[in-house]
Amino acid sequence: MQSIVVFGDQLNRAIGAMESATPDTHQVLLVESNALLAPSNGRGRHRQRNHLVVTAMRRFAQELTTAGFDVDMRRAESIKAGITAHADERSPEAIVATEPNSRAARRLCHDLGIDTVRSSQFLCHHDDFASWADGKRQLKMETFYRWTRSRLGYLMDGSSPVGGTWNLDAENREPPPDDPSVFSTPPVSRLDDTDYSVLSSLPQTHGEEPVGLWATSRRSALARLDHFVRNELERFGPYEDAMTTGSWHLAHSILSPYLNLGLLLPGEVCDRVEASYRAGEIPLNSAEGFIRQVIGWREYVWGLYWLWPEHGDSNELGHDRPLPPMFTGDAPTEMACLANTFDGLQQRAWVHHIPRLMLLSNFANLYGIEPRSVLDWMSDTYIDAAEWVMVPNVMGMALWADGGRMSTKPYVSGGAYINRMSDYCGDCRFNPRKRVGDDACPFTTLYWDFMHRHRDKLAKNHRMQRAAANLDRLSDIDDTLARAQTVIDAVAKGRM
After folding, report:
1. Reported pTM
2. Measured distance CA(259)–CA(268) in Å, rounded
3. Full pLDDT tens readout for the chain, 496 residues
4. Which of 43, 198, 211, 402 could form a disulfide with 314 if both were Cys (CB 3.0 to 4.6 A apart)?
5. What is the DSSP string of 281-292?
6. Distance (Å, rounded) from C-alpha 484 to C-alpha 474?
7. Are the C-beta atoms of residues 43 and 376 closer than 8 Å to each other?
């Protein structure tokens, strides 16, 4: 009898080593690692994330037990300790695993002599991505997206994209609607004995208690997919980039935690979306925009993680400030957009990609936070965090810490963008149109300070040249830079 180690982000019988496993040939090991639940060198992961992962593991173990498998579900100080104890107690003929989704877990398998089976959890294996990338001067996501969409056949008419256009992103930039009630209420599951047993076993970390928002089984995750396609997908495209106090989720799918744990597979999600489009239930811009996020961006980020092992050490802009108190929860902020975002993270461990990019990451860049600190903070905070997701997204797109290796420009802005794409600014004490004065928006002030600090570097970027040149048009640049220093000092002290 062989043993299969199933890591906590591979919870699906259709993935890798589990595909051909039977109760007669394999027993299964799942390890709850104390080292991952509450690392000794930090504040630990959000409580709802720990609950989601451990509960989903236990439900998967129950599913396998019902199917007749001998399942060893154990808590240990580390995954290594759990595997070692399992081997000593069960004496399997061999231990195998599906290719893990992190470098650390792959090193562990190598060190312990665990054979690995090629993963089928993604639609483009990282070896295939490396072959696609070989010889290319720049690895543009759009180029990869068109290649993989043609290869997989999503939204295609023969060799051409449905509708004649590959990317309909230009149609997906509407500000939030006046009436946020157009967005449905996400499903909530009642907590059961398994949930409460997990919660009683978890270490105390940050974040509010779970209320059933996050699905912890494949069955519930499939129900969340069904809800999204039936109730929100048609609005996903237009409001993809919007932010509003009236809805924390808008028309976003909220499916990323399930995809990242294996409760859902990317192919089945895209199949469902395309089927809805083909049935005339949703518009093309929403179907294309969503499928692009899954087979384009998500698979692209997965490939880059394995292609660039040094990416997590990037700091092209030389930022070195520590996380300010508003990020660590040690002080509130008067900035309405960030206050709302931090509150959402505390409540749900999730905000959608625009607050992540254009609020949290934007502010981190403008203020000058050291990139690795941002990466670690986001990894501990988001419910859908995984190393392969976070490193390229944070170092590449969010912070431009890699100097443009992944994204062609820094995603920075002043308050005007936030005002245009959200309703945060109306009740905020700061004015997004002002860069000097006590009521000047910190985003607007710090934007010009950022441009001034990095002018020489940004002036060489064709997408930032005009913005850098606009510094010469500011008659109050000295006052703006002085105000920026006041803002920086106040933020560092938790007073803004």
Report:
1. 0.95
2. 10
3. 999 999 999 999 999 999 999 999 999 999 999 999 987 667 899 999 999 999 999 999 999 999 999 999 999 999 999 999 999 999 999 999 999 999 999 999 999 999 999 999 999 999 999 999 999 988 999 999 999 999 999 999 999 999 999 999 988 889 999 999 999 999 999 999 999 999 999 999 999 999 999 999 999 999 999 999 999 999 999 999 999 999 999 999 999 999 999 999 999 999 999 999 999 999 999 999 999 999 999 999 999 999 999 999 999 999 999 999 999 999 999 999 999 999 999 999 999 999 999 999 999 999 999 999 999 999 999 999 999 999 999 999 999 999 999 998 999 999 999 999 999 999 999 999 999 999 999 999 999 999 999 999 998 888 898 888 989 899 999 999 999 999 999 999 999 9
4. 402
5. SS-HHHHHHHHI
6. 14
7. no
Sequence-ordered list of residues with C-beta below 8 angstroms from that of 176, at least 6 positions apart, any chain: 239, 242, 243, 244, 246, 247, 250, 421, 422, 423
Domains, in order of start, for the chain? 2-117 (3.40.50.620), 126-186+216-307 (1.25.40.80), 313-492 (1.10.579.10)
Taken in order 141, 250, 206, 360, the sign of the CA dihedral is positive
Distance between CA atoms of residues 352 and 389, nearest Å: 14
**CA-CA distance, 393 to 387, in Å (whole number)?**
10
Q: b vs e for 387-409, b when ≥16 Cβ sit within 10 Å of the residue's Cβ?
A: bbbbbbbbbbbbbbbbebbbbee
